[in-house]
Design goal:
By secondary structure, this protein is α+β, with helices and mostly antiparallel strands. It has a single domain (16-281), classed as Gcn5-related N-acetyltransferase (GNAT) (Aminopeptidase). It is 34% helix and 22% strand. It has helices at residues 16-19, 42-59, 66-71, 108-114, 126-129, 150-166, 183-197, 225-230, 234-241, 268-281, and strands spanning 29-31, 34-38, 83-89, 99-107, 123-124, 134-143, 169-179, 206-207, 245-246, 251-253, 258-266. Strands 1, 2, 3, 4, 6, 7, 9, 10 and 11 form a 9-stranded mixed sheet that branches. The radius of gyration is 19 Å and the shape is globular. The N and C termini lie far apart (39 Å).
Length: 288
Amino acid sequence: MNANPVAPPDFDLPPEDELRAPDGGFVELRSMNLGVRIASSAAEIDAVQALRYRVFYDEMGAKADAATAASKRDVDAYDAVADHLVVVDHDLGAGPEAIVGCYRLIRRAAAAKIGHFYSSAEYDLTKLIALPGEILELGRSCVATEYRTRGTMQLLWRGIAAYVVLHRIDLMFGCASLPGTDLDALAPPLTYLWRNHLAPEEIRPRAVAERYVAMDRLPPDAVNPGRALNVLPPLVKGYLRLGGFIGDGAVLDEQFNTTDVCIVVKTDLISAKYSKHYERRVGWVADE
């Protein structure tokens, strides 16, 4: 489940030796009053869960069970093993009270503590898990209403880029949500994604058989690519601008009233742009 627009990343990061914090994470990245970093306490994770509840349940109409409704927190087992990327507004404070955006990050070792990745409930991730190197699942992203600006979204992406660099992530993936479960209404964007951005076979997740929904729903001449791309959620468009791919099959998430697709992004583009940025900065290569 993801909500709110997210633009493609800004790679203006400090050199790696300056990026790494003493605890092994990355130093807080700032943009005026806003900062992005990894949550550092149970209280901050609780604030993340409260923010997710407000966005997913209060705003977007997800269906809460009794425990979720009582706690007003969006919680699952993965929260305890994940890293939580947070945007904080320093005008509001420096701790839990300042959290205005979040993104959940799960690496192999964290998923192993649960036994599988979150997305495995919807997609067969066998091909991704078999890859050498580190992989990263992204999910549960949201931003408070008044902070849904390009600046906030770019800051979140800078945080992801920093995490990718520090942890040597080779590939990112996760479920991204299209609003609603009306497959007739979603037929144009689903067909467009399947025909134009399907992942290569060797890294292509497939929706699990019992939840598989075909994405190729319309004949080619019935889909206007420009219009289909335009109606995609900005988060999905941001991944595509990074060279991202789509897995085979969509999944209906009735609880959250969304139709999910699986995104796969090789991070070599992030790493290459980050490296080139600093080669230019120290004069190793000429500007083009």
